[in-house]
Amino acid sequence: MSCITPQPSKATEGEAPAAKKGCCAPSAEARQGVTEEHSALRSGTDPRDRMIAMQGGTFLMGTDYADAFPEDGEGPVREVTLDPFWIDRYPVTNELFSRFVEETGYRTEAERFGWSFVFWAHIPKERFYDLVVDTVAAAPWWCKVPGANWRNPEGPGSAIKSRDNHPVVHVSWNDALSFCEWSGQRLPTEAEWEYAARGGLVQKLYPWGDKLRPDGEHRCNIWQGEFPRHDTGDDGYTGTCPVDAFPPNGYGLYSTTGNTWEWCADWFSTDFHLTGSRVNPKGPEGGENKVMKGGSFLCHKSYCNRYRVAARSSNTPDSSTSHMSFRCARDS
Fold first, then answer.
1. What is the tens place of the pLDDT at every residue in 119-136?
2. How far apart are CA 332 and CA 118, in angstroms?
3. Residue 196 pLDDT more than 60?
């Protein structure tokens, strides 16, 4: 089952959003403890201090998993070869994004448009009708909230003061690109992201293997309970969590499953990979949506089973929500 993706237009951003099939993330077409050791790696002046060197080589990308979404272009499994590259150990955090904004004065698209999408359970019940101006008819859990942005993730009155080490959210693909220009990095290609997220394992569902909860242990931040009504928070979180809240994969990358969706460089296509290059693939030359990988804290097997390494989704480059973020890469 896929999720519903509304796409309001910038030209008509005050109107009710129209529904579009997608994965958990509404899109705009016209518009919680961390160690000192990890903090140093995440916020060092040189981006390479936050990054891990990937050797590259040939790996098996995609999946033929029976419960995958073939309509998303997850399969078939194919050999892909990559040159060496570097990739961030963590998603970009609020702390690091704050530094970028302080040095450049950058304003995100959500700030310029004046609103972003927030998941309904994260809006204070007593203020719901004051903060929410619209909801998506086919997916009412997505609420249009004026004033929601990376500094105010749940809208006016919310803040990130205690979330320095959480992934920054309400950032569009365009925002992520601007950050990369400042940091001297780039966004990873989908192939690079998947290679790194697999952590050296071959054709496993998750960065740690095929079992979601080995020995009953939570390994990522996703939804537990009945979506979208009740998240039990059995994994310790009902929204974003610190980027190092769960163990890293075999390559030392954190938070590649769940927590927040992550933007990739590629334009999204469900079939380009069938005939496109399998050596350093970069996706089609153009399109409407950009690739997102990794799933988020809203993913649940009953509705959006896209927290698997090979799963993929997409959104327009100007879209922003409370569960979308990014990490950076660079050439070796």
1. 999 999 999 999 999 998
2. 37
3. yes
